[in-house]
Specification:
Elements: E1 7-11, H1 15-25, H2 33-36, E2 40-46, H3 53-64, E3 68-74, E4 76-79, E5 82-85, E6 89-95, E7 102-105, E8 127-132, H4 139-147, E9 155-159, E10 168-170, E11 173-174, E12 178-183, E13 189-194, E14 198-199, E15 204-210, E16 213-217, E17 220-221, H5 222-230, H6 237-242, H7 249-263, E18 265-270, H8 274-277, E19 282-289, E20 294-297, E21 306-311, H9 314-336, E22 344-350, H10 363-372, E23 377-382, E24 385-387, E25 390-392, E26 396-401
Parallel strand pairs: 2-3, 8-9, 22-23
Antiparallel strand pairs: 1-6, 2-6, 3-10, 4-5, 4-23, 7-12, 8-12, 9-24, 10-11, 13-26, 14-21, 15-16, 15-21, 16-17, 16-20, 18-19, 18-21, 19-20, 22-26, 24-25
Helix pairs in contact: 1-3, 9-10
């Protein structure tokens, strides 16, 4: 079996005690080859420890001898099957990457150039773990710029979430902008994104739109297409959205049911091939125009030419997370021969997914760990999830190192 990354997590009001508990958990790893040769630490802290983040990083550097660290602060962190929400906690994982195969970056340290090479001739800027400060203006543009600096695979990561000052960890404590670690082509990474919802119908082609307004799909009124996907009669739509009580009682009852269905509707959008990969942004349906039979969504369409209507509830979230994990497992087993090749994993989830969406405390992490098996797993509950060149919300980003 592949040697796994040492990892640890703990909760305690005193950060020194929490850090010491974590170090005690990985003490045995210091006697293994991976522990002795660790070169990079992934560190996530809850915002209860925001003011002590400088001291925590210095303490861990001194005790582990590891110089390079990357991470962020969130209202919640995760590890294994545990979720620590709104309590003082930390989680970290230690990797033994070759120093030639990673570079921590921040506002004070640039990432390697897109064309940079490792000593063995492979790309030095293949993929990147990125953390962002939520208070930074123009984050979408910064992410697109960062994605342009990556020669191969996708970006992944999250936006810090904190009720205090946001903090990013990148060989120091920073505020603002982006930070993280760029990984070379020599580091094998596989990732997936879970949208937390399920399509309720087929993918539709956008044939008329303006800004956030969907006018026609597949050459038919967008509202009619949505109602057909929902199994609702399209002829009742004007009375439904205007609330005009002109239908008989039976029709009123069905109209009310349709209104309730509309309130839980989301719209996934993107270019055609995005739907094959499950990598597309999802935004809520925010309104309808009964006269034009058009739909208003919570984002600009930009260059999107296809949409799919979705539902987000507990069942849909569970099914989609299992779907993402299953696809990841199949890819790993096909390319690498066995899930035993996983050395460690990161999971960045939306803070809005905590609580009842998955059925109770820690239910989301329990599902991820059950799907992956017994592998080192830590994560962050973010204020937005980074995958590709954009920020998503209410999603879960799962990353494995092999």
């Amino acid at each position: 079996m592949t040697t796994q990354f040492p990892w640890a997590h703990a909760t305690h009001p005193d950060w020194r005690m929490a850090a010491s508990l974590c170090l005690a958990q990985i003490e045995h790893a210091s006697r293994t080859e991976t522990g002795r040769q660790a070169t990079l630490g992934f560190l996530y802290l809850t915002d209860h420890f925001a003011e002590a983040s400088d001291d925590i990083l210095a303490f861990l550097r001194e005790r582990t001898g590891i110089t390079h660290w990357t991470g962020a602060i969130g209202v919640g962190v995760a590890a294994g099957m545990a979720e620590y929400i709104d309590e003082p906690a930390m989680a970290f994982m230690l990797a033994d990457f070759s120093p030639d195969d990673f570079q921590v970056f921040s506002g004070k340290s640039r990432p390697p150039a897109r064309e940079a090479r490792t000593p063995n001739g492979r790309s030095a800027s293949w993929t990147a773990l990125v953390h962002a400060d939520a208070s930074t203006p123009d984050l979408p543009e910064l992410l697109q710029d960062m994605a342009g600096k990556i020669a191969g695979d996708t970006l992944f990561g999250g936006v810090s979430s904190s009720r205090h000052a946001n903090a990013l960890i990148a060989d120091g404590i920073f505020a603002g902008g982006l930070s993280g670690v760029v990984l070379s082509e020599n580091i094998q990474v596989e990732s997936r994104i879970s949208q937390g919802c399920q399509p309720i119908g087929p993918v539709h082609r956008v044939t008329a739109s303006a800004g956030r307004l969907l006018n026609r799909l597949d050459d038919a009124p967008a509202l009619d297409v949505l109602l057909r996907d929902m199994g609702a009669p399209t002829e009742w739509a004007p009375s439904i959205v205007q609330g005009v009580p002109v239908a008989p009682d039976a029709r009123k009852q069905q109209a009310a049911s349709t209104v309730q269905m509309l309130q839980g509707t989301f719209i996934g959008f993107g270019e055609g091939d995005a739907f094959l990969r499950g990598n597309y942004p999802v935004r809520p349906l925010v309104g309808v125009d009964p006269h034009e039979r058009a739909l208003a969504m919570g984002a600009e369409l930009d260059d999107a030419d296809h949409v799919v209507f979705c539902r987000r509830d507990r069942h849909a979230a569970q099914v989609d997370l299992i779907r993402a994990c299953t696809e990841l497992r199949e890819t790993i087993e096909t390319r690498y021969g066995s899930m035993d090749r996983i050395r460690g994993a990161l999971y960045i989830s939306c803070l809005g997914r905590t609580g009842t969406l998955f059925g109770g405390p820690s239910a989301e992490m329990q599902l991820v760990q059950q799907q992956l098996g017994d592998v080192p797993l830590i994560g962050l509950f973010a204020n937005g999830e980074i995958y590709g060149d954009r920020i998503s919300w209410y999603t879960g980003v799962l990353v494995t190192f092999l």
